[in-house]
Amino acid sequence: MSYLDYSLTEVLALLNQGKVTSEQLVNECFERIEETKDLNALNSTYYDEAIKRAREIDSARKQGDKLGILAGVPIVLKDNINYVGTKTTCASKFLENFVSPYTATCAQKLHDAGAVVIGKANMDEFAMGSSNENSAFGAVKNPVDPTRVPGGSSGGSACTVAAKQCFASLGTDTGGSIREPSSFCGVVGIKPTYGRVSRYGVVAFASSLDQVGAITRTVEDNALMLNVLAGRDEMDMTSADIEVPDYTANLNKGVKGLKIGVAKQFYSDELCDDVKNSLNKVLEWYKSEGAELVEIDLPSLDTALAVYYILSSAEAASNLARFDGVKYGRRAEEYSDVVDLYFKSRTQGFGKEVKRRIMLGNYVLSSGYYDAFYRKAKRVQKVIRNEFVSAFEKCDVLISPTTATPAFKLGEKSNDHVAMYLSDIFTVPVNIAGVPSLSVPCGTSSEGLPIGMQIIGKHFDEATLYQVANAYELAHKEGQ
Ligand code: GLN
Which terminus of the chain is more solvent-facing, meaning fewer CB atoms within 10 Å of its CB: N or C? Predict the structure, then answer.
């Protein structure tokens, strides 16, 4: 058994007992990265820096120094998270050579907790996509079946954890980008409550929806990561000043007496049979453990996808206006005047999907259409949010499939944008409502592909998500 087969929590115990060193772990991770490089999960790696830091942590540990709670554990960041001195490309030609001048708060917190950052994960360009095929540096493959997509946009982050190249990674989720790939790759991914984790230093896609979260192989690992990441940050005014509980505290409390909401809108005809069967079994299992299943109605859920593509594209169009060839990133080599410089730099630097979003965003914000699209979508967002808030008066969590099908084939949806957008149908409502949601593996399809369930909770109630997920994971460990 390799050390890479252990979970983050297990390997931390081994580190603390002196049974393994951080240097050994970093070396094993890099061997695995080399063996599995065809997956194309990582855009950059930092072997020399990682080894140096691992040795420092090992010697501090030997001397009995007080160490952070993640001391010595190799982790990976999504390539839209700044980490000083490293490239942050957002998988875009525009930022191909951009080096971070500072570190994002989420990365700093991991660093301060002693994590060893070993690289940055591939992604869909500027986090726009559901398959990781929109990367300027090539698609990522699903480690379970390399003819399939890993999901997106945090496809590299999910892939690197599932392929055991590291013990945990960070992703970002604007409409499902942590949960969909986690579900496709068979790992655990959280989209925290909007405001739970600082966005400072994370390249913005849609600022009112973006959240940073962790991807791990177990629920316990994920809870531990959120312990490090969560909290108010003076540098992000949208980060919430709400106390951070110990997310590992309720892990073993079971689900007896908890109310699990089941909204019929999440169990539509679009679900493939394997997903439907897995979810039915999940719900039966929770019932047998003493949870109560409660029927919930979310009548506006089917409007969430349209709302999402209007709001996220509008925000993207304005956030991406800063990439103009002047301040940072790519600059066209030849241009006649400043307008031509903007035009050529943006034409050359952005990929097709990003351009599509910018056009869509500028359209819905343009005068004459603003009221019909943007303003209306903002109003419908309120309705969706209220429906979730009322649902949580009747239940503690909602459970739904993360996606309607397991991972699809590479290329299968590349030319059908609507089909691609529909892969997020169950994940986007969560971002629209701002509530937290955890995707957890809950079975395997007849073709051997992972299936994920999504456990959705009240604003700032991630602890209950971990409690509900851990009960299931503990009881189903062997089968996965
Ligand atoms: N797939 C969705 C999109 O393309 C969600 C992306 C995300 O969460 N970053 O916008």
Answer: N
Amino acid at 345: S
Does residue 431 line the site of ligand 1, with CB under 6 A? no
pLDDT in tens, 123-164: 999 999 999 999 999 999 999 999 999 999 999 999 999 999
Nearest one of 54, 91, 69, 85 to 16, comparing CA atoms: 69
The Cα 362–Cα 314 span in angstroms is 6
Q: Please give the pLDDT value at position 478.
A: 64
pLDDT band at residue 306 under the 50/70/90 scheme: very high
* CATH superfamily of the 3-229 domain: Amidase signature (AS) domain (3.90.1300.10)
Indicate if ligand 1 lies below 6 Å from the C-beta of 145.
Answer: no
Question: What residues act catalytically?
Answer: 78, 153, 177
pLDDT of residue 268: 85
Neighbours of 142 (CB within 10 A): 31
Burial 245-275 (b: 16+ CB within 10 A, else e): eebbebbeebbeebbbbbbebbbeeebbebb
Say if ligand 1 is within 6 A of residue 210 CB. no
| pTM (predicted TM-score) | 0.98
pLDDT of residue 480: 42
* Average pLDDT taken over every residue of the chain: 97
CA of 257 to the centre of ligand 1 (A): 35
pLDDT at 479: 45
What single-letter DSSP state applies at residue 375?
I
Q: To test the ligand 1 pocket, which listed residue (131, 212, 312) has its Cβ within 8 A of the most ligand atoms? A: 312
H/E element, 438: strand 437-444
Write down the domain spans for the chain: 3-229
With a 6 Å cutoff on the Cβ, whether 175 touches ligand 1 is: yes
Give tens-digit pLDDT for 45-99: 999 999 999 999 999 999 999 999 999 999 999 999 999 999 999 999 999 999 9
Cβ atoms within 10 Å, residue 126: 28
